[in-house]
Input
Amino acid sequence: MNICVVGAGYVGMTTAVCFAEMGYKVRIIDIDEKKISKINEGKIPIYEEGMQELLEKNIERIKATNEYDFSEDIVFICVGTPSKEDGKIELKYVLDAVENVSLKIRDKGIIVIKSTVFPGTTEKILKPLIQKYRKNVSVAVNPEFLREGKAIYDFLNPDRIIIGTDNKRSADLLKKLYEPLKAPILLTTLSEAEMIKYASNALLAAKISFSNEIGNLCKILGIDAYNVMKGVGMDHRISPHFLNSGIGFGGSCFPKDLKALYAGSKEMGYEMNLIKAILKINDKQPLRIIKILEKYIEIEGKTIAVLGIAFKPNTDDIRESRSIPVIHELKRRGAIVRLYDPMAMENAKKIFDDIEYCDNVDEAIENADACLILTEWKEFEKIDFSKMRSKIVIEGRRILKNREGIIYEGICW
Ligand code: UGA
Output
C-alpha cells in the first residue's frame, strides 16, 4: 500500500514519518517549496520530538513534492482548520486539498480526512465535492489524537484507532493499514468519527476546567487541590490524567475545537452550556494570577518577571498560551514585563514588541519585584531567587521544588 499525505504540518509530518517507519512508501504534498526541499534533504520542517530521527531512518521511503499527481491508494488530508472570528473553523484549506486530490487520485482510491472538521462536514460537504469529480473514489474520516511533543509516540502507540467510513472496502483497507500497530480499532460512520475527536477534546478540556474550579475553591478553603485530585483520580472511572489545576489550557487544539463545537451547535439551534462554561472558566483563570499579585504589590511601574510563554513545556508553540492574557493585563496596568522561555522567545516576539526579553532565568528575575511562573519547564523547578528586589513568587503551574526564603503562592494552592 502506498500512502500520500497532504500538508506537512505537525499532524501531516507525524503521519508521514510514522507510516514510513511502519514500512509504507509515503509521498508528502505541500505548497511550501522550502518545506519540500528541507524534507527531501532529510530535515524536518517543524520541531517534534523523535521526528528527525524517523525521517533520516526512513528517507528512502519518503518523498516530498508540490505536485498533485497520484499513484497512491490512500491519501491523508492533514491540512489546518484554524478558528474564524465567530469560533467556527476555516474549511477552505481542506476544501482546496480535497478538490485537488479528487481531480488526480487513481480510481478506487480513498481520501482520508485527518484534519479536524465539524461533525457532518465530510458527509454533507466533502463527499459531494469528491463525487462531483469521481464516482469511484471513497472518503473516510480518521481523526488524530496526537499530543504536541509526544506525537510520534502517540501515533505509534495509540489507545485506539477510529476509522469512519461509508463502505466495507475502505474500512477493510484502512484496518489493514493500521494492523501493525496492534491497537484496538473502532469502525464508525463518517460523522461519528468526526464527533469522537471533538467529544474527546471537549471531555479532556472539561477535566481541566473542572479541576480549576475545584482548585479555586480549595485555595479559598485552604485545602491542597493536588492531593484532592490525586484522591479523585484514583477512581478508575475517572483516571488520574488531566486533573492538574493551574492557569488553564492553551494550544492549537482545545480552545479551537471547543469554540467550534459551541459555535456549530448554536448555529443548529442548540446551545452547549457545558462547553460555554468550560471556555469561560478557562478565559478567567489566567487573570486570577493578577488578583493574587495585587495582594502584595501595586502593579503599576513594577518589574515583573514572567517565566514561560509556551502553552506547555517542550514546545515553542505559544498559540492560545495562557501567558498571553497575563502579559497583556500586566502591560495594561503599567508593569515592566520581563520574559524568559527556553524555546518560545522568537514566537513571543511576534506578539509583544514592548516587553523585555531575557536570555535566562537569572536575567529575568534580577531586581524584579515579583516573578510569575506560567509554564512547567523542568529548568524552573529549582531557581535561586536571591537576586530579586522583593521575593514574591506566584505559580500558575505547580512545579517549584524549593520555596524557602520567598513569599510564595500558587494559583489554586
Ligand atoms: C491535545 C490532546 O491532548 C490530544 O489528544 C489531541 O490530539 C490534540 O490536543 C489535538 O486535538 O490535536 P495538545 O494540545 O498537544 O493535545 O496538548 P495537551 O498536552 O493535551 O495540553 C493542552 C493544554 O492543557 C496545555 O496548556 C496544558 O498545560 C493544559 N493542561 C493539561 C492542564 O492545564 N492540566 C492538565 O491536567 C493537563
